[in-house]
Every structure is written in C-alpha cells, then in structure tokens.
Design a protein that fits this description.
Order of helices and strands: EHEHEHEHEHEHHE
Shape: globular
Oligomer: single chain
Number of strands: 7
Number of helices: 7
Largest sheet: 7 strands, parallel
Strand content: 15-25%
Radius of gyration: 18 Å
C-alpha cells in the first residue's frame, strides 16, 4: 500500500454525531464520504439531516441519515441498535454534536450547567460506551472527539469587547474535559486496537461582528478564521491507516492560535 492509499476509507463504517450541522459536522461527514467511508449522519434535526444526506448521495457517496439526541440515553441506545442491525460494526466514531445555548458567566446558572453536562458529558460518555466496545471486539477502530482551542487555552475577553458576544464558561469546561477523556479511551482500549484522538479547531467564521473578526485575524498567525474545508484533512488522517500509530493526541487545527 502506498502512502496515499493509506488515507482511503473505502469499506469503513463511520458514525458522525451532529453530522449534518453547519459548523464542523457537515464538513466532517463530507470528508469521510469523500474518502470512501459509508457515513451514518446522526443529528437531531431530521429535516436538515435528510436534505444534507440526499445531497451527498446525489454526488455518488454512501450516506445514511439517523436521528440522535445526545441528551437522551435511550436515543443513543436506539442509534446503536439501528447501526448494528444495518452494518454489524462501526469503524469510526466522530463526536461532533454539542449542546449549548450560550450566555456568559453572569447569565449561566447551575441548572444550565447540569443540562449542558447531560448532553456534552453524559452524552459523550454514553456514545463511547455504546460504540467503543464494538470496535474493541473487532480489534480496532478510531474515535475522534471534536474539542476546541478553548479546551486547551483560556479565551481572550478582549476579542468580544463591544460585540455583544460572550464566551460560555461551560464550553471551556466541557472541551477541556473532553481532551483528557479522549486520553483515557486511548489508554484503556489501546491494546484492543482502538485509537482515540481529539481535534481542537480554532475560531470558526460564522458572520461574527466585524470587530471580533478583525481582532481574531490580527492575532492568529495564519491571518484568518477557520472554514468548513479546514477540518477535512485532519478528520480523514485520524480516521485512516495513515495515523495508525497516533492515539491520545489533541491535534490543533487553529491556524497557529495556541502557538502564541
């Protein structure tokens, strides 16, 4: 096998949570499909999910829409059952779905944190509990958790001045914990051939106020915010045999933000 061939995912079954979402999820699903994987696109909004999957299939890729609410353990169990009934295995699990309503430190409440934990922490654990043993039983697989630069470094409050934007404190808590949980999965299941890694994206351009964008772009070494194409290579690399000796890593896809 040549090195370029090692990036191929033909014959692999991938599950992407939040896989039809406009921020990260859809580009992750698209990348895996483009690399040859059969992609189970698991999202809460099924109308959007069907529309997105239909677009992939019209382009000749193999994608399947499934409903998933990461705050509901029964929904996760049902997803696992449907995937196993249809495909009998999972080779790649990408945890991209996130629960959040925003709000700064002053606005968020303990009840909000409990709701965030139910989806972002309990949901992540339950999804791994459902699918990782399946991978281990077959002798291998790749888990990719989508964290953030704010799981590694603190946010810069100066970016948000006079924009009306606020960085939610629960987000940094969840994304930081996700990185160490990924290391736990990597070490606990490594001898059974399962690899687990994090991707830590930088700031995603989403039509934010001009002052925020200008401040961000001045600070980041590559001079721009992240777009939908920027995660694709990292996802395919960590899913494929090209990264067969890579596990427990938090891969920064941040334009150099955390290098400063």
């Amino acid at each position: 096998m040549g090195v370029l061939d090692s990036f191929g995912l033909k014959g692999r079954i991938a599950v992407v949570t939040g896989g039809a979402g406009p921020q990260f999820g859809s580009s992750i699903s698209e990348a895996l499909a483009e690399a040859g994987a059969t992609v189970v696109v698991a999202s809460r909004n099924m109308e959007n999910n069907h529309r997105f999957v239909d677009g992939l299939n019209e382009r000749g890729y193999d994608a399947h829409p499934e409903e998933l609410d990461i705050t509901n353990t029964e929904s996760i169990g049902s997803l696992k059952q449907r995937v196993m009934d249809r495909f009998d295995r999972v080779d790649i699990l990408v945890n991209s779905a996130v629960v959040g309503r925003g709000g700064g430190f002053d606005e968020q409440t303990p009840d909000y944190w409990a709701a965030s934990a139910q989806g972002n922490m309990v949901g992540l654990f339950t999804l791994c509990k459902a699918f990782v043993p399946v991978m281990a039983g077959r002798g291998g697989g790749s888990v990719i958790n989508v964290s953030s630069i704010y799981g590694v470094v603190a946010n810069d409050p100066g970016l948000y001045e006079e924009t009306g934007m606020k960085q939610p404190p629960d987000y940094t808590f969840v994304k930081g914990g996700m990185i160490n949980f990924t290391r736990y999965i990597a070490t606990y299941f490594g001898k059974q051939g399962v690899r687990a890694n994090c991707i830590c994206p930088g700031g995603y351009f989403n039509e934010q106020p001009g002052p925020f964008v200008r401040r961000y772009e001045r600070r980041v070494p590559l001079g721009r915010m992240l777009n939908n194409e920027d995660l694709k290579g990292a996802v395919v690399f960590l899913s494929s045999d090209a990264s067969r000796y890579v596990t427990g890593v938090a891969l920064m896809v941040d334009g150099g933000w955390t290098a400063l």
